[in-house]
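Amino acid chain:
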Amino acid sequence: MRKEDKSALISELAASISEYSHFYVTDTAGLNAEMTSNLRRVCFNEGVKLLVVKNTLFKKALEQSEGNYEELYNTLKGTSAIFFSNTGNLPARLIKDFRKGKDKPQLKSAYVQECVYVGEDQLDVLRTIKSKEELIGDIVALLQSPAKNVVSALQSGGGTIHGLLKTLGERNN
């Protein structure tokens, strides 16, 4: 590969790192062409960008990007595929679902919510991280809960008072 081509590829990778807020470094060695194609299709349908890259080029792209990625450098060995996503837990869920009955792709490391996760054992942790939309939904539900309780109490209380007044009114007649 020519030096100009490498520079262009490094720039493209650096642009992807800045465009997507989360990325996962995985080992896809051993996947045949059909499984790789299926993985790419699943990623595409879910809005995850999947790139197979040379480790040295990806490291240079990380060095050019803003952020502290030094903990990831040791995981850039062997065959590496990068999952880029704007939802932190989506690649972990895709990997876990795709692996049913298989052992690949294996998680090497991940950069999610400005934190570095290293090792296959972190996949379940990453899978349970809530996305921004899920957290907002939880907050809205928590904020709505007291209001719903007040409205419910007023509605049921109003019916009780109305029933009580009606009963008292019927007794007096």
In short: The mean pLDDT is 82. The chain has two domains: 3-129, 131-173. Strands lie at 22-27, 49-53, 80-85, 106-112, 115-118. The CA atoms of residues 105 and 139 lie 34 Å apart.
